[in-house]
Amino acid sequence: MGANRRTAEDLQTHHLQPQPTHRYYLWVPGRLAATGRRTFHIQLFIGLRAAIRHAFTQEERPMQASKTTPGMRSPAVLNKLIFGRIMPLLIAAYVIAFIDRTNIGMAKDRMEIDLGISATAYGIGAGLFFLTYALSEIPSNLIMHRVGARFWIMRIMITWGLLSACMSLVQGEWSFYILRMLLGIAEAGLFPGVIYFITQWFMVKDRARANGFFLLGVALANVIGAPLGGLLLTMDGLGGLHGWQWMFIIEGIPACFLALVVWKMLPNKPSEAKFLTRAEAEDLEARIAAEESAGAAAAGNSKLRHVLKDKQILLVVAIYFTHQIAVYALSFFLPSIIGTYGELTSVQIGLLTSIPWLFSAIGALLIPRLATDGSRSRTVASASMVGIVAGFALGAIGGPVLGLIGFSIAAFNFFALQPILFTYPATRLSGAALAGGIAFVNTVGLFGGFLGPYVMGLLEEITGNKMSGLWFIVIMCAIGAVLTLKLRRGTEDPSKASVSGH
């Protein structure tokens, strides 16, 4: 069967209806421009839903032909089928993970009042999660490589769900620190594990799109988690508990239930998938293995020790480090910053906090698909880092309206950049080196998740100004923007490693 041809049987059996390509790119802004303030969130949710639907069903770009037997579905059809079967589960897992990781942002001001935790102590506790998370990443990912994604993701979800609920037991700074560190250990391996898992199912040119959809979980977590957290904070006094205690309990439990769904429904690799025929699974695994071998051979990196010697991998680490400083500074401090905009209730703060993350979801949907080759990846990565710098600068100097616009610009670019960065290791590494390399990038990069909140909290306590730490973010991301100019993939001509690709 041709790479792009669908038979009537394909359409009937797999419910794949042809859709107009890219229609939602113009439809979403057009609808939003026509809506009033009261329906802003509703229309944006509708737009995101339409974007996701079209992204799963739109016509694919021509794919490289593979040898198929009669009756085998085309690569384009299989790609859509795999997206529909595994990506919703992965996105749901990351939504819950990110809510449980960052919900202390909504609880910050209340915990400071109820427990006497200082801004610096809050920043340390927020960042300590990433210290233990980062140190546990590589061992966790290598274990997953041995035991399989399904079992290991289930284990991760159950332990982090229980520990997130235990955050309700915090009594002071030290118990806050300890539980944040334990939560980091429990959740370690989820993100790099899923990124590695995606490399077992998708060709290189489709991975930025798959990574982008997975990272929708971060945006959706904040869109859902911020208003939900604000609502749960209103339960203060119910059953003798503070509102923030109810928030940790109610938001921690769902991870345990979803873990059982993952165990039942997520196959480890194509050859274990019941929705693929044996021939289809073998063909897909062969094409992916050939592509990985070509990239690793071109870069000369097929063993784990080569990870630390590859300058491009180290470059990705440095860029990701600056990126994570920005992401988690905004995640942990945006609710508190918005609280300075006026006399707002916790629910209002939660709703306003969700606005930048709605734009981050749009960025994750629209931008990564443009990164189809090395030069385009550099261009998009560089532009995204510049957008983050501009957004934080506007947030630092603007009032409530301009500040929120600036944070929305920065958030729009967060997950336009991140999925592109994680396509680079798979073009330069293979096998255990790839699993360890992805974990290495995420591990070192996540130290930015410690540094960003710590510096934000420290500067807030020193100056008494919640905005003062934003300029640190601007400087670090400006450095990251410069570094993106040197990115190149494993099979790419070094002479083309420039923004223009020439």
Automatic annotation (TrEMBL):
Keywords: Membrane, Transmembrane, Transmembrane helix, Transport. Residues 86-492 form the Major facilitator superfamily (MFS) profile domain. GO terms for cellular component: plasma membrane. It is found in: Cell membrane. Signal peptide: none annotated. It is a multi-pass membrane protein. Pfam families: MFS_1. GO terms for molecular function: transmembrane transporter activity. The chain crosses the membrane at residues 82-99, 119-135, 147-170, 176-198, 210-232, 244-266, 313-334, 346-367, 379-398, 404-424, 431-456, 468-487. InterPro entries: MFS, MFS_dom, MFS_trans_sf. This is MFS transporter.
